[in-house]
Design a protein that fits this description.
This protein is of the alpha/beta class. It has helices at 26-36, 65-70, 84-95, 108-112, 116-122, 147-153, 173-196, 206-213, 215-224, 259-270, 284-289, 291-303, 307-316, 327-331, 334-338, 379-385, 390-398; strands at 17-21, 40-45, 74-78, 99-102, 127-132, 200-205, 241-245, 251-255, 320-323, 342-345, 352-355. The longest helix is centred in the middle third of the chain and has 24 residues, at 173-196. The model has no long low-confidence stretch (mean pLDDT 96).
Amino acid sequence: MDRLPMDRLPLPLEGITVVAVEQAVAAPFATRQLADLGARVIKVERTDGGDFARGYDSAARGLASHFVWCNRGKESIALDLKDPRGLDLVLRLVADADVFVQNLARGAAARLGLDAATLCAAHPRLVAVDISGYGASGPYADKRAYDMLVQCETGLVSVTGTPEQPVKAGIPAADIAAAMYAFSGVLAALVRRGTTGRGGPVEVSMLDALTEWMGHPLHHTMHDGAPPARTGLAHAVIAPYDAYPTADGGRVLLSVQNDREWRRLAEQVVGQPELGADPAYATNPARVANRERTDALVAKALGALTADEALARLEAAGIACARLRDLREVAEHPQLAARERWREVGSPVGPLRALLPPITLPGGDEARMGDVPALGQHTGALLRAVGMTDDEIAALRRDGVVV
């Protein structure tokens, strides 16, 4: 059997077709990963505005930033699932698909026959994913599950913030966690199908996904008996570990992981080498017990330097450090620029900047970063592909079954 040379390897999901009845973030972000890796993703949207994430904001030159982030590279078909003709169209698309993903409200997929168990019984090779808030059973199964609510239920909010004020994460952490487990679940199920010939259901809940991510504080609490304290940018059990202001208004974060690093920091940055052996600072437990004094010493030293000077001195001393950047600075990050991580994707409003996905597969094709679709942009082409005539499509449009 001839093997393709490495520079001709296709994307790993080339030839895989995904149908997704999806909305918001969790399912769309999962299927975007599949699209980036070469899968054809058919996004099924409502006729009355489509995925409601399209209306979250208009920050991306008139488009919603969530939607642009999660939906590039997909084909959009807009139809009414409550009309039997619309539902039949989805089932016809699923019949030729490899993967189906849905995150409809609890019970809605089952009522439509679009739940994973029903679809996999009809199509044994299909991998079908149900994404829910709290899982298919248990006392929370029917609860509404928005990202912030799940952040609260999993304890993420309890460990994030300052001693005085818990805060939610600034990104939709529960949605992203569920998306990434759905993505990896699809890949695992496709590998299993390759050896057994059978697909099967995949179940992911936002609660399960984010609780897994809470592993460190959860195990700390279960086994030690006390939850880690909220410490803002500081670390509950390491000092110094915080962000410190610099003379030019910047903030530099540093982390001292062991006592050898403390001695280097004391000598080369703080300018007081004697602190390396001082019993009040020489060990991490001592520095944590004297956190205010430790932080004051570091803050005084860095406060006399610009951010660039502080980072240079910390780097020279071998101390882990970072600049506390705002999002405008992240968009111009020198490391992302040097590694050429930015691309442009098409959209209904023209080209938009987007990051290459984090999974890099050297030696093959670059990730496929397709256009962000307009609502129903591909409806006609997809309906013709399942055998409908132009007259039949026109009739469905007149009746409002498709857009």
